[in-house]
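Usage

Read records sequentially. Each one opens with the input sequence:
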Amino acid sequence: MKKIEPPFIQADEKLTSSIKDFWNKNINAERIMGKEVTNSERGSDQYFKELAEQRYRSHKHLLPWIKSMQEGKSVLEIGSGIGLDSYEMVKHGLKLTAIDLTENAINTIRERFQREGLEGDFKVADACHLPFPDNSFDYVYSFGVLHHTADTDRSIIEVHRVLKEGGEARIMLYHRHSLNEWIHRLVRVPFEEKDALCPVVRRFSKEEVQKKFESFSSVEINVEYLYGEGYGPLFKLTPDSLYRFLSKHFGWHLMIKAVK
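and closes with the structure output:
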């Protein structure tokens, strides 16, 4: 593979079908750069245990982000995948609604919640056309999803629409001015799957994100996550203090808090 996904791709509703096909085939969190994270049966307790351990070991900034949301509030998760973050949000005491573009993801998360007796409302839906009334949720949460949509700008408009007045969007978008971007450009390896191009992988500068969220009353953007376990021994060998420092300047994740 000698190509990577371009950082800029024109919004086009016709992309939705190919995006859905890609993520139905490539279940998010099951592989890192072509390597299986778990050999356990999809949906089993061991499957979720192994995937969660890997996710939060690599994404050290993520659980604190989730747990800083106020208990008892309603949250819409856009792009739940198999529901690792969904599970943590419900355990934290949030009232969860979750959507994903793929049936595989929604079926997997729904079965887990039913088995464990947890509350949650799950739908197959498109981030560009959210099936909810205006002013419905206290939080909208989306980690690493809106940059994969057919129309990222449209999806942000939808986030604003369904948030209550004073509600908060918590969104992660990929950072173009990052070490991960430079490495992928150098080695020419796709961003999401080692040997397959994802239909849409947009990346943004902080300034571009600020403009995209200009309809919100306030926007805070922090940079996190230098690289993860796909970088092999380098991830384990990088001292924590150096990793945190470099993440703040050259991280791959733009962690956005935007208040309506």
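Summary fields computed downstream for this record:
- The chain has a mean pLDDT of 95.
- The first strand starts at residue 31 and ends at 32.
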